[in-house]
Give the backbone structure.
Amino acid sequence: MKGSEEPDGEVISSVPTDSGVYYTSHYWNDLPRVVAYISENCTGDPTKSWQSDFLERFCPDGPFAHGLFANCGNGWAERDFIDRGIVRKATAFDYAHDLLDQAERERGDRDITYFQADANRVDLGTDLYDLVVNVGALHHVQYINRMAAQLCRAMVEGGTLVSYDYVGPGRNQYSRAHWRQVRAANRALPAPLRKDRLRQPHLPTMLVSDPTEAIHADLVLDSLSRFFTMTEVHQAGGGIAYELLTHNPKFFGEVPDGEVAAELDVILAQDRRLGAAGKVPSLFAYYIARPNKAALGDASLDVFQAAEDARERWAARHRGTYTFAQYFQVQANRAFFAGLRWLPPRLHRWGLRLGERLSERFGL
């Protein structure tokens, strides 16, 4: 991670400098049955992905002329959109140099231009793109209100924004009621498929490993709605299935496929049922929006940017946290584990086990 000054020179933004925390292990959408489930939630057809749906409905007269891809990672999304015939030319940016190098190597002869930028500071220009694509990118943006305005300004009148992204709780800090549902679903699985180390995302660890992960995911749709007209929002689910399947090797080869398939159907049915009942949130969404260029001149919206700047200044002074409860959680965690350093090895190991249990039970 690297700190860099935010545009006003007062607030520090955290950005990943390499891909060490990305593209690791297995995620729920690496499973074909999950892909079909997501597709059905997004398009009504388990055989039609959201990309195919978008191509079919929004490109009847041919591809978009020029697309912008935010936080592009290794470049797979822009390559895919060009290869599908959704867009002719792409411009894409990311902060991680190694990901940009990989994207450039795999660009081939496609018309793609890459540049390096911090999403919290980038100037995207004015009236350049008729398409903006967000695939799992905006949930990493710290200054999300600023980014929403930047995207609106960068688009031409009548352009289209298409997104598939995580829209769940900020930094994956699920409510206790939500986590109880996840734990109950895990306990109900047969032992050979149960996730052995089901741990609620630990905020102090996230702040060290990747402070941008889902940093303001819960604010993305509201922020975009100030500068865009949201024309469609399709909830893709994941409230139960995402945590049970992601980083669970038992579903990725450790257990025979025949045993996995039946339990996958049970998990996904439960995911849909609890999501529809409002007992767990949908963690992912496919949505489409049009830029509202008039909003860029609306002075009444300045209050949101002022609030964002104040929020990030506060976080910079409080170890990257956004509430006193989060700050005390981080401080208590630091104090507990700092104390373990002085213990004899046997007590140190006991303390680590106790720390894990306390973290799971009380969120320390």
User: Anything to note?
Assistant: The radius of gyration is 21 Å.
